[in-house]
Amino acid sequence: MPDERVPADAGRTRAPLPLPHHPVRDALLGLLADLGTVTSTEAARRLSLSSGLCSFHLRQLARHGLIEEAPRRGGGRVRPWRLRDDSPGADGVGVEWGDATGIGTLNRALEDESYRRWLDNRERAPEEWRRDAAFSEVVHLTPDELDEVAAAIRAVLAPYRDRRGRPASAAPVAAVARLFPLLVDPPHGR
């Protein structure tokens, strides 16, 4: 069996062909943008997938230069991964204003792509899952209130993020909230 470990310099040059979108890879990139580092075991737990599947796709992302191995803490076989330093949002470059979780431009693009995929394929989902709860509101907030609202949304979602003993019918659901100031154009002639 060939050695499937990624050489230390594997991510230093980009692959000639782009890596096609795949829901597992998209989810892994989102986790890395959110958490900073992740192992295949942790990714599997958070995404309700197998560790082997997550490991395979993490190696694919590394082969295509999107992620790299992070320094290991302690011994053992733990293999943490991180976005490459030159990836969008990896070091805060391109991170949007008010982005308290550190999710940058890359994760926003993944959210948009996931939502487009949902809209395009909704009819293939089981009947009980053919709905979503997308909504939009314009509210008037101060900068401190914006932070308060963001914290309240996170607090509402926290019990559902990594809950143990979740119902068998539970499935991963994207919960996306974007709070940002609307830039009002000045009237013409000023």
Question: Can you characterise this structure?
Answer:
- This protein has 190 residues and is mainly alpha-helical.
- Helices cover 37% and strands 4% of the residues.
- The protein has five helices and three strands, in the order αβααββαα.
- α1 runs antiparallel to α4 and α2 crosses α3 (51-63).
- The protein is globular and about 60 Å long.
- The chain starts with 22 loop residues before the first helix and ends in a 29-residue tail after the last helix.
- Residues 1-16 and 88-103 have low confidence and may be disordered.
Q: Which structural class should the secondary elements be placed in?
A: mainly alpha
Largest sheet: 3 strands, antiparallel
What order do the strands of the largest sheet run in, or round the barrel if closed?
1-3-2
Task: Average the pLDDT over all residues and give the rounded result.
Answer: 75
Series of H and E elements: HEHHEEHH
How many angstroms does the end-to-end distance come to?
70 Å
Low-confidence stretches: 1-16, 88-103
Tell me what the CATH architecture of the domain at 23-136 is: Orthogonal Bundle
Fraction of helical residues: 25-40%
Q: How many H/I helices? A: 5
CATH classification class of the domain at 23-136 = Mainly Alpha
What is the CATH topology classification name of the domain at 23-136?
Arc Repressor Mutant, subunit A
Characterize the overall form: globular
Instruction: Determine the CATH superfamily of the domain at 23-136.
Output: Winged helix-like DNA-binding domain superfamily/Winged helix DNA-binding domain
List how many beta strands DSSP finds: 3
Q: What share of the residues does DSSP label as strand, in percent?
A: under 5%
Radius of gyration: 19 Å
